[in-house]
Amino acid sequence: MALKKENEQSISPKVLAQIKSLRTNIDKLDVQILKLVNERAGLAVDIGKLKNDQGTEVFSGAREEEVIKNVLEANKGPLDPSTIRAVFREIMSGSRALQKVLKVAYLGPEYSFSHLAAVERFGSAVEFIRVGSIATVFEEVNRSHVDFGVVPLENSTDGGVSDTLDMFMRLPQLKICAEVRLKIHHNLLANCEQGMIRRVYSKPQALAQCRNWLSKNLPHADLKDVSSTAVAAQLAQQEPGAAAVASRQAAVKYGLRILFGDIEDYPHNETRFAVISHQETDKTGHDKTALMFQVSHHPGSLVEVLDIFRQNKLNLTWIESFPAKTGKQEYIFFVDFEGHVEEPRVKRALNSLEGKCEQLVVLGSFPVATVSG
Questions:
Q1: Are residues 274 and 175 located together in one domain of the fold?
Q2: Torsion over CA of 155, 160, 161 and 164, rounded to 10 degrees?
Q3: Same-domain status, 108 and 195
């Protein structure tokens, strides 16, 4: 197949004139778009000043979700929804930064999936603070060293993330104010050929999610656990005969070739991240509420609690059990369900739950996220 020329010398004069005319129109539109974006930013700054006078937080997850919903419903193409979402995410991020540059902690280093989830939610115009553990993300938020933290909550193949659940038990005063659902695509990155790979680095969950592919295609390679997929990419860059299971963004960052893409064993692999803070989120009409509770240790106690959700027509979207760490066979349960704490049926359910649970903590209400990536 003949390659297309990168220059335009072979294009006829007539077609070149048409292209020039179209580009002139694009240039005019660009100026109009720039003017409108800056006008929008100015209005956002005015809103920020009014909110600041009232002592209200700059970031409003509910409002930003409303903006995205409005533009996606109005979009007639040809740009696809993911592109529209990315454009407006950055517009809002830049406008927000004119009022206040948010600090957001995540489990680093850069280009880990937690970092990608943080960018997906907040855009690029924030100060990202990378830390070495999920516990440190919680501690940084709790001490108000940062405004928000992004932590993995559950994976579609591996279930709940134990470090995150453990920290909610330790710091129940922190709230989930938003969620991010990220499709997780794993890639084999290396700067050597497949037959030369002797070691594959990645975080344990990533290796587990590619278990079948790795055993079939790299049966003799040693699989080595590291703290993140980004660290794996760094090691693959430095070590001869090493490869990493990581994201495409990590491949670009560390100058690695993508030998094989999308090697995850299950194509619908997804991780849900929680955005944690001290603030609560307003109702959008399309929300979830997350709870943490403990029931008495007798037959039927959990069934009685779960029946309260049925009675109030609240659809459970997640349930996870976790050892209570009391030295006894007791468990803490984590659930989320459709609805906001300000809704009457949710208030009724919470009142009933208080009478049935030994411990009940509302971890927050937040807008339902759509999957990205």
A1: yes
A2: 130
A3: no
Give the CA distances from residue 191 to residues 83, 186, 243, 289, in Å, rounded to whole numbers and listed in that order.
31, 17, 8, 45
| Element spanning 353, H or E | helix 344-356
Among the candidates 209, 227, 260, a domain finishes at 260
Mean pLDDT of 269-274: 92
pLDDT in tens, 18-58: 999 999 999 999 999 999 999 999 999 999 889 888 888 88
Bond from prior residue into 78 cis (ω within 30 degrees of 0): yes
Both structure tokens of 227: 């703290």
176 and 212 belong to one structural domain: no
Q: What is the largest CA-CA distance in the chain?
A: 85
Query: With helix as H, strand as E and coil as C, how does 2-65 read?
Result: CCCCCCCCCCCHHHHHHHHHHHHHHHHHHHHHHHHHHHHHHHHHHHHHHHHHCCCCCCCHHHHH
User: Do residues 331 and 256 both lie within one domain?
Assistant: no
| Domain count within the chain | 3
Q: And the tokens for 185? A: 């695509």
| E strand or H helix that includes residue 317 | strand 316-323
pLDDT in the model for residue 228:
86
The CATH number linked to 130 is 3.30.70.260
Q: State how far Cα 287 lies from the chain centre.
A: 16
Q: Which domain holds residue 305?
A: 103-183+270-372
Q: Name which of 368, 369, 300, 358 is nearest 333 in CA terms.
A: 358
Q: Are residues 279 and 365 in the same domain?
A: yes
- Choose the weakest-confidence range: 32-41, 191-200, 318-327, 363-372: 318-327
Q: Report whether 365 contacts 174 (CB < 8 A).
A: no
195: Cβ–Cβ under 8 A, 6 or more apart, which residues? none
Residue 93 sits in a domain whose CATH number is 1.20.59.10
Which helix (H) or strand (E) covers residue 223, if one does? strand 222-225
Among candidates 266, 145, 118, which has minimal Cα distance to 205?
Answer: 266
